[in-house]
Amino acid sequence: RKEVEQDPGPFNVPEGATVAFNCTYSNSASQSFFWYRQDCRKEPKLLMSVYSSGNEDGRFTAQLNRASQYISLLIRDSKLSDSATYLCVVNLDSNYQLIWGAGTKLIIKP
Amino acid sequence: EAQVTQNPRYLITVTGKKLTVTCSQNMNHEYMSWYRQDPGLGLRQIYYSMNVEVTDKGDVPEGYKVSRKEKRNFPLILESPSPNQTSLYFCASQGRAGEEDTQYFGPGTRLTVL
What we know:
Largest sheet of chain A: 6 strands, mixed
Structural class of chain B: mainly beta
Strand content of chain A: over 45%
Distance between the termini of chain A: 37 Å
Number of strands of chain B: 11
Order of helices and strands of chain A: EEEEEEEEEEE
Oligomer: heterodimer
Shape of chain B: globular
Helix content of chain B: under 10%
Distance between the termini of chain B: 36 Å
Shape of chain A: globular
Strand content of chain B: over 45%
Structural class of chain A: mainly beta
Helix content of chain A: under 10%
Number of strands of chain A: 11
Number of helices of chain A: 0
């Protein structure tokens, strides 16, 4: 079983719709969680951190469910520019070790 | 402007010909790391460095070397490249461990080994 698992997609979603996807992690000792966005053939960029209490940034909401060991990302009123691959990242401990999911590809259609 | 630079951006080479991919950051970050990204596998860490002269293996170090003689530079060395090292490589840096300080990535180096 992979340490961090994501549905690879692609998710094909009409513009303006709400889309959500999850990421599961296997290590219950994981301490911090992030969503990164990666555009085709470009470097990943931090989208948002995921706090225990949840985190909202404009149209984006991230949630953490420690009991079931998953994090989620919700995008409301999706835009064409939201088309990208979304990478789930888990920090196992207090050092720099990050475990990356393989990503979920999102395609927003007009 | 805060940035991580990598060179070259694209490289096609042949099996066995030594190559170096340079990485430099201008943010005075202590931590630097190299990843490779392959379809369906996500980012996998090759080597990382906690500070000058301090390096350690990541998940997939075989076939790679690194050095950290200066804080800003962290080159990746392939002494004898093989076709299975064809991949997209990213260098990253981060300011402080344990804090929610994001990793900054370079633009990537697309390597093809024939």
